[in-house]
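subagent[fold] <- orchestrator: predict structure for attached chain, return tokens only, no commentary.
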Amino acid sequence: MSGKLEKLKNYIHDLGSVAVAFSGGVDSTFLMKTAHDVLGEKAAAVTVSSCFVPVRELNEAREFCEKEGIRQIIVEADVLHIEGIASNPKNRCYLCKRAIFAEIKRVAREIGAACVAEGSNLDDLGDYRPGLQAIAELGVRSPLRETGLTKQEIRAYSKELGLPTWEKPSYACLASRFVYGEEITVEKLAMTDQAEQLLLDLGFRQMRVRVHGTMARIELLPEQFGKLMEPEIREKVEVKFREYGFTYVTLDLQGYRTGSMNETLTESAGGVGNDSSQKG
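subagent[fold] -> orchestrator:
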């Protein structure tokens, strides 16, 4: 496995300078740390702030860059005003990534970075990832994927480096919580963010709150079903979710899984080739 890390370092060295699309997640944190170790001041972090990203994620990204002495540029993105996004079409992720990475490329040019890099890994090729098409079209580099690193390897390297994200649960933007075709609003995003934050505060780690109108569908790891059913916790979740604006609160018996909103797509509407699905 050490050979892959050296391969990654050589890859990044050959870039000369880079603006890393940095969210603070497992993959982008490892990529940012490695890029900074190799290139120093020639590696900068570009972090997007939007209503699709919880404040806690933005704060964690800021704290990491401050601790590591990494130059960070925060870009404010009014994502709901990107044409087509608010109606949540099946290609929403493509439209969003295309607009956001075009802005990151603009920032990269301003600071003199030779290219933009993002943190997708080899495992992402086995899942529906609409954003990959936009990334490819814009010429954004994917060092982790291009050097053959898997999610498991990235977590292992992150642990060796002492990165706080090595066991951080997987995360995707809040827009991935909505059923296709449902209008996405600032209010609904806030409801979802509050609901997920409550579950995190109650000790549920890997989870999602999926939104179907005013119904919240909670996805948890099956081993944590029992915890949710404890009377005090169940009552608190039900009461607080209603306060946030949900009418019904349900538990998905299939448990947590990425991309569950894609399960209703047909073969013809949901393939990778037409870029109509999302991971989240």
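orchestrator: received. Logging for downstream: Residues 266-278 have pLDDT under 50 and may be disordered. The chain has two domains: 2-160, 174-257.
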